[in-house]
Amino acid sequence: MSLEGKVAVVTGGARGIGRALAEGLAAAGADIASLDLTDSAELVASVTAMGRRAVGVPTDVSSPESVAAAAVAVEAELGPAHILVNNAGLHPHQTSFADTSWELWSKTMRVNLDAMFLTSKAFYTQMNANGWGRIINMSSSVVNVAPLGGVHYIASKAGVLGLTRALARELGPHITANALAPSLVDTPGLSETGISQEVYDAVVGAQVLQELTTAKDLAGLVVFLCSHEARFFTGQHLHIDGGMVFGD
Ligand SMILES: NC(=O)c1ccc[n+]([C@@H]2O[C@H](COP(=O)([O-])OP(=O)(O)OC[C@H]3O[C@@H](n4cnc5c(N)ncnc54)[C@H](O)[C@@H]3O)[C@@H](O)[C@H]2O)c1
User: Fold this and answer.
1) Where in 75-191 does DSSP place strands (E)?
2) Cis omega (within 30 of 0) on the bond before 173?
3) Does the N terminus or the C terminus of the chain have fewer Cβ atoms within 10 A?
4) Atom of ligand 1 at shortest range from CA of 66
5) What residues are annotated to the active site?
6) Does the beta carbon of 242 lie inside 6 Å of ligand 1?
7) 87 in Cβ contact with 112 (< 8 Å)
8) DSSP class of residue 57?
């Protein structure tokens, strides 16, 4: 499953899941562009050390102007993109529906959902130019589980699923689009939410594999979905959660 010669754009590649996915794609041979608000220097260094090209493009993926500029920069630095991993996202700080403000709702939608519209629109034309493309969108098991205190986050991730299926239909067959649904993954963003030990224990206890998912656990599936061998997978919502959600 070599990705040699492929250009992969990963949003939020500077840390957490995005960084692990970018490094996994690079290990499979892809050149990497990380679009992130955070400095991607560490990722760029690790990908370069693997002998692949890498560029960090400072980007706010929720801004149309910033995404348009990033698409120009990626094409100029690495050539037209083949792969887009829409990973950047805001984590939910547990908030009841009563306490969910319009501002929190709107910001979550802008970063978690609107941004995927913007990046997909900006990069699918580059994939068309290549005659081949792969879009991977980060969803979450919350779409199925709907835990308390996350109306804004759950709705944004359910939107990601709809976007993924619509893109799979409209952009296929040469471009596939799939969504990845992990449960809790040990990342800087997750620990910043101040999540309690009880929640960790409850999630791990609901899994077949009784341990917290790591970002690296997701990379192999993403490499497969980005390969030629996965050409018949499109429009799917893939649960990678140690065996918690069974089904769609
Ligand atoms: N960690 C989990 O438990 C978990 C579970 C399910 C789904 N997810 C999803 O996985 C994705 C990554 O999560 P993570 O845990 O690695 O998060 P993280 O906070 O550790 O990393 C997110 C990265 O995205 C970047 N980012 C945030 N907003 C941005 C913006 N507007 N423009 C550009 N970059 C931006 C951040 O700078 C950061 O580098 C998110 O979409 C999240 O919803 C995470």
Assistant:
1) 83-86, 133-138, 175-181, 185-186
2) yes
3) C
4) 32
5) 153
6) no
7) no
8) E
